[in-house]
Amino acid sequence: MLGRVSLLPKSVARRSISSRRHASTKTIRDALEEVIPAKQARLKQLKTEHGQTVIGDIKVEHVVGGMRGLKAMLWESSVLDPMEGIRFHGLSIPECQKVLPAAPGGKEIIAESMLWLLMTSKTPTEAETRQLSRELAERGELPEYVVQLIDSLPQSLHPMTQLGMGVAALNKESKFAAAYERGIKKTEYWTYTLEDSMNLLARLPALAARIYRNVYNPGKPIPGVNKDLDLVGNYVNMLGYGSNHDLTEYLRLYIALHGDHEGGNASAHTAHLVGSTLSDPYLAYSAALFALAGPLHGLANQEVLRWQLNMQKEIGDNVSHDDIKEFLWRTLQSGQVVPGYGHGVLRSPDPRFMALQKFCETRPELLKDPVIQLVKKTYDVAPGVLKEHGKTKNPYPNVDAASGCVLYHYGLTQFKYYTVIFGVSRALGCLTQLVWARALGLPIERPKSLSMDVIDTLVKSP
Ligand SMILES: CC(C)(COP(=O)(O)OP(=O)(O)OC[C@H]1O[C@@H](n2cnc3c(N)ncnc32)[C@H](O)[C@@H]1OP(=O)(O)O)[C@@H](O)C(=O)NCCC(=O)NCCS
Question: Active site at which residues (predicted)?
Answer without folding.
Answer: 297, 343, 400
